[in-house]
Design goal:
Layout: H1 6-24, H2 33-43, H3 50-62, H4 70-87, E1 97-98, E2 101-102, H5 104-107, H6 110-129, H7 136-150, H8 155-165, H9 172-182, H10 184-199, H11 211-242, H12 245-248, H13 254-257, H14 263-267, H15 269-286, H16 295-306
Antiparallel strand pairs: 1-2
Helix pairs in contact: 1-4, 2-6, 3-4, 3-10, 3-16, 4-6, 4-10, 7-10, 8-9, 10-11, 11-15, 11-16, 15-16
C-alpha cells in the first residue's frame, strides 16, 4: 500500500504555522500576562490547522511561495481560535472541553476568555497589515477579504443564524446557508487569500498570467473552497453523532443537547454521508484544469470527509 501523501504535507504545514503563530503571539510573560497566556493557550499546541493548511496548499497550486501566505495562514487561525473561545462561553454554547482540554474560560475565567478572543481578532489584522512579504495592495486586499469572511456577512453572521436555529426545524437551504457562513466563510477565505498573493506579485515582478486567466482560476478555486467548506461542516455534524469525545476533542452529542439543526438530524446519517461525498466530488471537479501543483488541494478534499476529529 502506498504511503498517504497528505500526511507528510500536513505535518510540514502544521510545524510551519506553529512557528509563525508562536512568533506572532505576545510572549506569555509580557504585561498583561494573564491575557497573553490565555491567548497563547487558545491558539498554540493543538487544532487541525485546516485553514492554514488550505492556504499553503492553495499557494502551491498557484505557484506562490509559502512565506507570502504565512501571515494569511496565521491570521486565519487567529480568527478561528477567537471564534472558538467565544463560542465556548457560557453565554453561547457553554462548553467545558475544546481540543481535548478545558475551554479557555474554564482554564482562566470568563472575562479573560472574552478579552482574549477579542485580542486574537485584532492581532489577526495586525499580522496581515504588517506582513513584509507582500506588497501593500495584497495586504489591503487580504485584510478586506478576511474582514468579510469573519464579520456579519460571514462567520459571525453564521453564528447568529446558528443561535437562532436552536429548537427550530430548518429546511436544507436554510441549513446550508447557515453553514456556508459559519464554517465555510473562513475556508473560502483561506483559498482566496492565496489567490490574492498570486495575483499581486512582489514589487518589480510581472503577473504570471492575464486577468481573464486569473479570474477563471480564482473562480474555480472559490467553488472548490465553497464545496469543501460545506463538506467540512457536514462531517463535523456527523462526528457529533458518531464520534467519540476522547477522539474528537470536544463533547459529542452537543448539537442534539442544544437542539441544533444538523445534516444528520435533517437528512439522516446515511444521506448526510452521501451529501458530503457529493460536495467533495464537486470540489475535485473544479480543479480538473489544474496540474499536479493542486494535488494537495485534492488530497485535502478527501481528508475533509475521512477525518475522525
Amino acid at each position: 500500500m502506498s504511503e498517504d501523501p497528505l500526511g507528510p504535507l500536513m505535518a510540514q504545514c502544521r510545524a510551519r504555522i506553529e512557528t509563525v503563530l508562536d512568533a506572532s503571539l505576545p510572549a506569555a510573560d509580557t504585561s498583561p500576562e494573564r491575557l497573553h497566556a490565555a491567548m497563547r493557550y487558545a491558539v498554540l499546541g493543538s487544532g487541525k490547522r485546516v485553514r492554514p493548511i488550505l492556504a499553503y496548499a492553495a499557494a502551491r497550486a498557484t505557484g506562490v511561495s509559502w512565506e507570502r501566505v504565512d501571515a494569511a495562514a496565521a491570521a486565519l487561525e487567529l480568527i478561528h481560535a477567537s471564534s472558538l473561545v467565544h463560542d465556548d462561553l457560557p453565554s453561547l454554547d457553554d462548553d467545558d472541553l475544546r481540543r481535548g482540554r478545558p475551554t479557555c474560560h474554564k482554564a482562566f475565567d470568563e472575562a479573560t476568555a472574552l478579552l482574549a478572543g477579542d485580542a486574537l481578532q485584532t492581532l489577526a489584522f495586525e499580522v496581515l497589515a504588517t506582513d513584509p512579504h507582500n506588497p501593500p495592495a495584497a495586504r489591503v486586499a487580504m485584510v478586506a477579504r478576511l474582514a468579510q469572511a469573519a464579520g456579519a456577512g460571514g462567520m459571525l453572521g453564521g453564528q447568529v443564524l446558528d443561535l437562532a436555529s436552536e429548537g427550530r426545524q430548518l429546511d436544507l437551504d436554510a441549513l446550508k446557508n447557515l453553514h456556508q457562513h459559519k464554517t465555510g466563510a473562513l475556508i473560502r477565505a483561506a483559498v482566496a487569500m492565496a489567490a490574492i498573493a498570486a495575483d499581486t506579485p512582489p514589487h518589480g515582478q510581472a503577473a504570471d498570467q492575464d486577468p481573464a486567466q486569473a479570474q477563471a482560476r480564482a473562480a474555480a478555486m472559490d467553488h472548490y473552497a465553497a464545496c469543501i467548506g460545506l463538506a467540512f461542516q457536514v462531517q463535523d455534524d456527523l462526528l457529533d453523532v458518531e464520534g467519540d469525545t476522547a477522539v474528537i476533542g470536544k463533547t459529542s452529542g452537543a448539537d442534539a443537547a442544544h437542539h441544533k439543526a444538523t445534516y444528520p438530524s435533517l437528512l439522516g446519517v446515511e444521506a448526510a454521508h452521501a451529501a458530503a461525498r457529493a460536495l467533495v466530488d464537486s470540489a475535485l471537479a473544479a480543479l480538473r484544469d489544474f496540474g499536479a501543483g493542486a494535488d494537495p488541494l485534492r488530497w485535502i478534499a478527501d481528508y475533509i470527509i475521512a477525518r475522525d476529529r
